[in-house]
Amino acid sequence: MKTTTQHNEKIAKLTFSSVYPHYITKVESKGRTIEELHLVIEWLTGFDVKKLQELIDEKVTFETFFKQAKINPNAHLITGVICGYRIEEIENLLTKQVRYLDKLVDELAKDRKMEKILRQ
Question: Going from the N-terminus, what domains does the chain have, and what CATH number goes with each?
Answer without folding.
Answer: 5-112 (1.10.8.290)
